Amino acid sequence: PEHGSLGGSATGLLPIRRRQLAQETGFELLDTGAMYRAYAWLDLNYMYGESLSENISKHRFDFDMSTGKMKVTCDGRDITEEIRNLEVTAHVSKVAADANVRRIAVSQQQEFIAKELSKGKSVILEGRDIGTTVLPNASIKFFLTASPLKRAERRAAEIDGDVSEIAKSIGERD
């Protein structure tokens, strides 16, 4: 089994392409951005005064790619669609900037890799810092780029949002 990374500003440019890449190579794909979106969703909906990292540890998140499309659940509740809304999109960069949250995410990503490799499966992780932090010794690395406008157009089509509003958010995040 092998492990690889898919990184760069355009990793989310064409969701169907990344699924095709995984299917054609036989790799399991983990969209790590969905992890941070799930944590942002939790922060927006279920914060009770403790730190987000403490709150994350009190909930069970599952990230399932077995159907070819990422399914995200929190404590058994399917939040796949909810994590793609504009409110979560606007909040996710703040959550991803939290060093404690990043440590949790990296640990969960590495657990995912170990679990899949132990089953004899090859894996590829998509997202920021994968090739440098999560999988620095990945056997395969892809790095894709796209302009902020192209990224905004793709995200707007995905969530039926406003391109200019999303482009502004991307510019602030980058």
Strand order of the largest sheet: 2-6-1-7
How many beta-strand segments? 7
Oligomeric state, counting identical vs distinct chains: single chain
User: Uncertain spans, ≥5 residues at pLDDT below 50?
Assistant: none
Order of helices and strands: EHEHHEEEHHEHEHH
Number of helices: 8
What composes the largest sheet?
A: 4 strands, parallel
Let me know the average pLDDT.
83
- Helical content class: 40-55%
* Backbone CA Rg: 16 Å
Distance between the termini: 34 Å
Structural class: alpha/beta
Shape: globular
> What fraction of residues sit in β-strands?
15-25%
Protein described:
It is a single chain. The protein contains 8 helices and 7 strands; from the N terminus they run E-H-E-H-H-E-E-E-H-H-E-H-E-H-H. The model has no long low-confidence stretch (mean pLDDT 83). With 174 residues, the chain is α/β, with parallel strands linked by helices.
